[in-house]
Amino acid sequence: MSIRTAASTVESIQAGNHTDGRVRRNKPVWYGFLGVVMLATAWPVWLRLSEGLAVTDLTSQMPWGAWIAFYIFFVGLSAGAFLLSSLVYVFGMHQFERIGRAALLSAIVSMGVALAFVGFDLGRFERGPITLIFFHWTSPLSWEVRFYVIYIALLTAELVIALRVHKRMVWSVKKSLRWLKILGTVGLPLAIFGVHGGTGTIFAVVKARGMWFGGLFPVIFVVSAMVSGTALLILVHYWQSRASYRRPSKSLLNGLGVVLSGVLAVDLGLLFYEFVVPLLASEHQDLSIITVMTTGPFWWSFWIVQLLCGMIIPFVILVVPRFRANTPAVVLAATMVVIGIVAVRFNIVVPALIPPIIEGYPSNDYFPTLVEWASSAFFIAGGMLVYSLIAEWMPIHEPDPVDELEEDSMVSPEKEVKA
């Protein structure tokens, strides 16, 4: 070993030790923040469980609100993250390999948060197992419960195998990779048709509600799942790298930006047909819901948050090569997309329930109460805490050996700014 190589090795070890020290100092801040959020919002959770829906703005005419919107949002995050992991383990797109384990863990945790939201909305968690006992062939909900169970089991098995492959804890890596491909291949139709497509079917079969009823709705759910899942993994990779004092991979973020721009383009096209068909058909129920969304009390959520900030601006950022090559611009676009998809979920659930089904009845009114917002923050912070703890115990973000040889594998944020 030459003197220069030895000096470089010592310098790398010292830099690594210094980085580890800063990471250890930052962890209490992150966990403390999540703990404070959960403690501050625990009382609203207890209020809902003890006093029922009286502490919310939900009524018998307005049965669904923020919790159902967050439920379908996190189901979409889960399905989208899993579909992105399939690019690695099924289709062999190894440029995304470093986020494969993070995608699987994100899918599992997001699914858990989604089920917590829908269980909280129903209010009787102890009755959950009963849904597995009774079954009806024509009920989308009956099918959906079983799809969720199989899906979570499949994700868990795939993550365990991926972790063992990363640690070389299996006697045959080639055989384990084959199993990852088999599980991913089985999970693809399950995620598309069963999990998020099935969630869209729950809405699509409600004939009494305009803008829900129709065969296009499950397709919209699947595409928006890819949009939100891709944006989520961009943020996970970027912020986890920064927290670990590693430079985020520009090539990976650029590739994810290409994927996100593609699915955003499809999502914009589906949004066009989602509105143009009912407008041309002039169906009264559909038109009344479109009016609520575009000119009613939720106009800002549709025009500004969903369409402008969640779709158009990120799409422009991601299709212009100069912007897509800029890491902060890609992260900004992904952040806007995630916020925009939250607005999409609210615009799916709430406006469709505002117009009365029976003509002559007064319109419904809804806006989430402080209890609904605070309890939502409790479950979201809880999901982030679970993800952080598992990532702490397991090598979810640990670079693969080939990644450690890359030029951008280890650098502090201060050095990145100077560069």
From TrEMBL:
Record's protein name: Molybdopterin oxidoreductase
Membrane topology: Multi-pass membrane protein
Predominant location category: membrane
Similarity comment: Belongs to the NrfD family.
Transmembrane segment boundaries: 29-46, 66-91, 103-125, 145-165, 186-206, 212-239, 251-273, 298-320, 332-358, 370-390
Any one GO cellular component localisation term in the record: plasma membrane
Keyword terms of this UniProt record: Cell membrane, Membrane, Transmembrane, Transmembrane helix
Subcellular locations according to the entry: Cell membrane
Originating organism: Cryobacterium fucosi
